[in-house]
Amino acid sequence: MKILVAIKRVIDYAVKIRVKPDKSGVETSNVKMSMNPFCEIALEEALRLKESGRASEVVAVSIGPAQCAETLRTGLAMGADRAIHVEYPGTLYPLSVAKILRAIVDAEKPGLVILGKQAIDDDCNQTGQMIAGLLKWPQGTFASKVVLDEENKVATVDREVDGGLETLCLDLPAVITTDLRLNQPRYATLPNIMKAKSKVIKKVTPQDLNVQIRSDLEVVQVTEPPKRKAGVILSSVDELIDKLKNEAHVI
């Protein structure tokens, strides 16, 4: 069985985000970029399924500008067999990404599609659900455990919900989105990093996939959250109660 994993290039999670002066977005020039952490978890799970003999091939795909090839190289170094780069220099929103991935699924015919539940740059948490809807495939979101049964062609997914865990049984092919507690992604070893540099990344465009990109959303303004007031040290419980009652008005 082939597994398709979608990965996204985002600002590194450790970087302090800066809003552009014109408030049109966040600053990405001269900023460290890396693979979205939830995508790393999705790729790790696909690799573990392959290593356990439940998958024959792992294909990584990324959509975006030329620099996305670096993120795909990281995926190849982690252990992906092949990589596909859909080149598009502009801004993409979840529905457009889902349409592109549907076209790739139609061409690659994977038995399972795994994505991170969300990207840490926009926090949309929509792409996986949209792909499942477009493909009319069953979906298991926020997965914290995945078990494949190839004989019966089903996947059992434990997903995290507010009340605890919910267990789903999905007929394959299916779409799964990964949560933080599913696994701990591996680090790419130096030999694998060197090998990944020689691997070919297939490049296509949305036009090659017969997908028309149109903007269905408009970002009006991006602003920083309000700065928090400095804390104060109180000398007694009575003073704390007074402030909670007369200043914060919470009691």
Write a brief structural summary:
With 251 residues, the protein is an alpha/beta fold. It has 6 helices and 11 strands. The termini are far apart.
Which structural traits does this protein have?
single chain, 251 residues, alpha/beta, nine-stranded mixed beta sheet, two-stranded antiparallel ribbon, 6 helices, 11 strands, 26% strand, globular
Characterise the protein shown here.
The protein has 251 residues and is an alpha/beta fold. Helix content is 27%, strand content 26%. It is built from 6 helices and 11 strands. The chain has helices spanning 37-51, 68-78, 94-108, 127-135, 190-197, 237-246; strands spanning 2-6, 9-11, 33-35, 57-64, 82-87, 112-116, 139-149, 154-161, 164-171, 174-178, 201-204. Strands 9-8-7-10-6-1-4-5-11 form a 9-stranded mixed β-sheet, sandwiched between helices. It has a two-stranded antiparallel ribbon with strand order 2-3. Strand 8 and strand 9 form a beta hairpin. The protein is globular and about 65 Å long. The termini are far apart. The model has no long low-confidence stretch (mean pLDDT 91).
- Uncertain spans, ≥5 residues at pLDDT below 50? none
Given helix and strand content, the structural type is alpha/beta
Report how far apart the termini are: 59 Å
Q: Give the overall silhouette.
A: globular
Q: Going across the biggest sheet, name each strand in turn.
A: 9-8-7-10-6-1-4-5-11
Give the SSE string: EEEHEHEHEHEEEEHEH
Largest sheet: 9 strands, mixed
Share of helical residues: 25-40%
Oligomeric grouping of the chains? single chain
Number of helices: 6
Radius of gyration: 21 Å
Number of strands: 11
Q: Averaged pLDDT, please?
A: 91
Strand content: 25-35%
